[in-house]
Amino acid sequence: MRLPEYAELHCLSNFSFLRGASHPAELVAEARRRGYAALAITDECSVAGVVQAWQALRDLEAEDQRAAHEAEAAGLPAPTVLPLPRLIIGSEFQLADGLRFVLLAQNREGYGNLCALISLARRRAEKGEYRLQRGDLASILPGGAVPGCLALWLPAAQAAEGEAEDLAWLAARFPQRLWIAVELLCGPDDAGQLARLEALGMWAGVPRVAAGDVHMHQRKRRALQDTLTAIRLRTPLFAAGKALFPNAERHLRTRLRLARLYPAALLAETLKLAACCSFDLASLRYEYPAEIVPSGHTLASHLRQETEAGLRRRYPAGIPEKVRADVEREFALIGEKQYEAFFLTVYDIVCFARSKGILCQGRGSAANSVVCYALGITEVDPMRAHLLFERFISRERDEPPDIDVDFEHERREEVIQYIYRKYGRGRAALAATVIRYRRRSALRDVGRALGFGEAEITALSASLAWWDKPEALPVRLAALGLSPESPRVRKWIALSQAIRLFPRHLSQHVGGFVISQGPLSRLVPVENAAMPDRTVIQWDKDDLESLGLLKVDVLALGMLTVIRKALAMVSQRRGRVMTMADIPPRDAPTFDMICEADTVGVFQIESRAQMSMLPRLRPRHFYDLVVQVAIVRPGPIQGGMVHPFLKGHAEQKPVQTISPEVDAVLARTWGVPIFQEQVMQLAVKAAGFSEGEADQLRRAMASWKQKGHLERFKEKLRAGMADNGLSKFAEALCRQIEGFGEYGFPESHAASFALLAYVSAWLKRHEPEAFLCALLDSQPMGFYAPAQLIQDARRHGVEVLPPDVTASAVCCRLVPRGRGRPAVRLGLLQVEGISLATAEAIVAARRRSAWRDVQDLALRAGLDSSQMRRLAEADALTALAGHRRQASWEVSGLQRVGSLQQADLFAAEPSPEAHLSFAAPALGESVVADYASLGHSLRVHPVALLRQRLADRRFVPARSALGAGDRALIRVAGIVTCRQKPGTAKSVFVTLEDETGVLNVMVWPRVADRQRRELLEARLLGVYGQIQSESGVVQIIARRLVDLTPWLGRLDTTSRDFH
Amino acid sequence: MLWLCLRLAHLALDVFPPEALPAVAVERQRVVCANAAAEAAGVRAGLGLAAAMALAPGLVVHERQPERELQWLQALACWAEGFTPQVSLAPPDELLLEIGGCLRYFGGLESLRERVRAGLAEQGLAAVQGLAPTPLAAQWLARAGIENACERQADLRSVLSPVPVEVIDDLDAAALRTLASLGVRRLGDLFALPAAGLQRRFGASLCLQLARAGGELPDPRAAFVFPEQFARQLELPAKVADAAMLQFAARRLLAALAGWLAARASGVARCVFMLEHEDGELPSQLELGFAEATADLSRFARVLQERLGQYRLQAPVWRIVLRADDAAPLAGRDQGLFGQEAAQALAPVIERLRARLGAAAVHGLSVVADHRPECASRVVLQARPGAQADPLPRPLWLLPRPRALPERDGVPLQGGALLRLAGPERIESGWWAEGEARVGDVQRDYFIACNPAGEWLWVFRDAAGWWLQGLFA
Known about the structure:
The structure holds two protein chains of two kinds. Chain A is of the alpha/beta class. Chain A has a seven-stranded mixed sheet with strand order 1-2-3-4-5-6-7, with helices on both faces. In chain A, strands 8-9-14-11-10-13-12 form a seven-stranded mixed sheet, with helices on both faces. Chain A has a five-stranded mixed β-barrel with strand order 18-19-20-22-21. Chain B has helices at about 10-15, 35-40, 50-55, 65-80, 110-120, 135-145, 155-160, 175-180, 185-190, 195-200, 205-215, 245-265, 295-310, 345-355; strands spanning about 5, 25, 30-35, 60-65, 85-90, 95-100, 130, 230-240, 270-275, 285-295, 315-325, 365, 375-380, 395-405, 405-410, 410, 420-430, 440-450, 455-460, 465-470. A five-stranded antiparallel sheet of chain B has the order 14-20-19-18-17, with no helix packed on it. Chain B has a four-stranded antiparallel sheet with strand order 5-6-1-7. In chain B, strands 8-11-9-10 form a four-stranded antiparallel sheet. Chain B is built from 14 helices and 20 strands. Chain B is elongated and about 100 Å long. Chain B is of the alpha+beta class. The longest helix of chain B is centred in the middle third of the chain and has 17 residues, at about 245-265. The interface between A and B is large, with 60 and 49 residues.
């Protein structure tokens, strides 16, 4: 028997969240294996999965070509290639009254209409939902509803009342474009169903077509599909009952089986429909908005004019020859690739930000061009950093340029609103981020579906410490009394693995905007995000990249806020305007400070790991910082590139010579590959990759955990390098590539970050007061809590004054002191529980006249009793009411009148009360209260109060420990300010702080396992250990941990835990 | 007046069977009570559940059950009647005994306290004993863990002074914060502040409590009303299938009975435990008989242990009731077999059938939403009308287990070759029960078939061959 041809026209991927049980790529590959002529991806009111399916087809095609080439090269006959199924784009809908149907796009017009319909249904419903009514299809155009789309009616499995009317209604909407989907799924009465639908179709004159209601690519996904159903219905599986499908027939069935189940005519009909659908995603064209070019200009002429003006500004003394040459080369490339509109779109946004005084900084492959420097998109002078545009944009690789622009985090919203205003909501939307199942969420949802109790699930996820590896799971289960061998636990583990990386919902990308010339919703559906007034498209950044559509990343960066605030304060203090460009580029004291790892608060190079690298790398030039920013990352660390680099850097000569081409790639990093770009260049130069393959490698690196087709490239890399006698080198490179996967950090980004690191270091070195103010006012951000930032500043001689209602502004502020350094007065916002509005009310009322007493303050600033209490607890009322106890008594005695709604919360004339005098609190009590209200204390470090007790037990201060020699045995104790377990290390790192300084403690796995509790819980930690001192980096290797937390009494400290 | 406050700090956990492993009772995902093993691992009340579990892997977690705690407190009140007729409940975890009038019976204060301690210990309980002339002061002392007796009202203030202010009821978080920032940590600090100033800041309730604790204002407490006839019940924390596991709860009830009997100077020669099962099954009875009337808990306990040692439970028990009718003349009323026979005419018929054929031979069916035929119905004592089955082609009679059918040339035989009438209907479901329940994953193609005798059969084929599962009537 000849197998019939077949096209599947009704197939859901896992982008029909918690319904479909296969990834789009799995469906495509299976359809090809089954020899389907076409496959329609018809997710419910969504096209979120189609780009992945489309990309999967392209990958299969590339794979075929590669195999063919290899065979040809080896002189073998060409391998037989299964034809690829055609991809049809469609969507399944259910109207509010229950009517269900599928629409399939025939052409670009139909696709646009489909996207518009999805957008309409999604935009009027809550995030993740949609709503569609008959009226939405009723607007009868001459050709019917949703022109350019075919429709399949999805009848109920059993005859239902009114179905004939439904069919007739649809037939009127889709004249000559409607089919009845006959889905024979081995139900109780397939024969009856077939007969019924044939009769209905004959009556209404509507043809029938076979379809499969596909929910999974293979039948073995049945358990997973049932689990998804249970999760969706929030019920355990055993109670899900008839909500589960009765069997696994909803998979891509073999054509043999289809031939047995369906009449031949119905199968043949599928091909007729498929032939009517010619739309291909590749035909989507992105059109840039026109308004970025003033009339009388072309894109190119406008870009050139703005660039030339910028260059004159940047190089007032004349444009250097090299710059001129680079600019011309860049223009040639931009023109060839037609990227002008992209640069101008970014330029327009940056211009807006600048006009509003919002600090911004571009980064990414295209940002390090002279053009971007001239346009002010970046402050990194490409000359200064030896950066080459072509290093980042390749002529051969057809990859879109990448410019991310970071804005001050507190003001990015203004930029976003500008974009919406300028282009309208119909033309601008954020890219989506697909939120996927991770280990914990998978265990939780699958656990619930299998009927595990909340307690067991919480127990399991709690017992998986953030440093545990997946292999630890059976051990953890056993510790909870759950046998890893029991059938149910095995199902739990297996299904949790299977569901990992399944999409759960669409969220908004952090800032990737898509802006179009025409209505965006005809290009891709737009739906609501969780945030009010935000809309996202249904594709994520990988999808956009696959299709070559461009996005502009509008990101938020706290450090820019800090720099802008600090520069404003410095400008005021120095009496002249100071910008980032005014900071001297080669300031020796700044580099000295960096070399000593004195970098608390400095952008990017403040973490423990970065600090331990600084004294070894000893950055003296800007490019050193670029490397420094990139080197303490999983990629270089896993690849074992750090030590060779340090060696080369110290000797100032390459550590290896391989071949002239490779050496050229690696020259700037002493023969050691550090950056992602270098790895790609190496693949081309040393492993025989084509430019196109190198681009695929880059994409695979970014998503290897999700899609896992990196293996192939690694094989090729190994093979290619082995041919060149570089096997060992290839191994290290492969490990490095894996590290990149998680936190790919290209040189183009490192350069921009390095500039911000340098600027913030300069501020810390030369204007520590302004830097502290700006940091405190931009919290939360960075690696350190306010308490540590203040401690660090005070160790550097900055005088910090407490918040005070008679002196503090809303934010932190510099207090000038004649000719000496200014002091820092903490702002009212530093007081816990005081909101911006409250702080502003206090300052505004104070401006009119000084306070008479607390009553006056409460009355005129309109404060309620809890706000007054907060101020008293923070000791901010000292000037009005004396010490904290006295102030609390006064404040709590204020009498209220009426209800809270009334403007006057406190009586104007209090009933008199006899004065009561409180004894001043002891120092210890004050410190405890400071921590409770402010998170830090300016009086004395809490550990100082315990110093005698600590000394009795032979714990020494941090400063003495740092002075002790290598390998000395020592006891130290301090407040735990940070716990960290980097993915690349086995040990846990703990940072301790006492009154004399900060210590880094390394806890080896053996100790960490044995003393898990001390490690997780202690806020005041004692460590018995040994000093390890190497090239100026001192850390303590813990042998034993002691929890001294009870000594702290009520002191409330917090640690920041990273993983 | 002299008040003894028994504070059962671990009551929230005491209502569950004792646990050698770390165990906690939680309320809204927060630990309210931890046993010794859990405390040793660093788990304290107030900790989040996730944190507690991280500290003590394998932690046994009980959701707090306030009603059960109240039941236990009431049972304890019955037991306490053995000491004094004036007992008050102070939920959630305190019991107040006025012992001024009964000290002499028990040979003085220390002797009484020792008896209380021993009596509690016998029940596996421990309480902090606060002792003061006012009930509130006794409670505060107990909460602060101070067991030193304060017998004279004049000493009250000095005894209470070192007690932390957190013992006071109804102080909200804001008030506690204000007190802390005033440097007021102990009741003594509070006594030092002017009453008018306190009232202005913290409201009347605080001053009222201080006055009541100090005996300056009366503090009437509702006395616990003891039952006239002893029938107390305890719900078990989890269904119990092993008789030995009942011991824990049963002893608690016997202790209550002993106290109740002691207060009435009477005893019992027999008492009965009713063991209640689920699903309307008749409760089982476990009778304890004694050679003579007694009120001695240790005797009760001994007999209980012997009886339980040889008793086999017919079904898991979820609640036990202890009745001791012999101490009081009133006869107990039997509970009906079903709550609502009178309302339904069918019930008497079923009852008669059961009487003739045996209870196990008569049952109802209820529909269960499950694709697997074996699991789509369940035997119940009494079917509820109204549950609708799906309109699927299903036979009325299902065999208890599918019966294997021989086949010839791929055609199943049952009195001859079967003729296929309809199908296949494919059913693949139940993988989640695989390896756990009687019916696990099924993967079958069902057919309606006709045998040479003209009977319509429901047969299926799976990996193992052909099976007969049902008959169409």
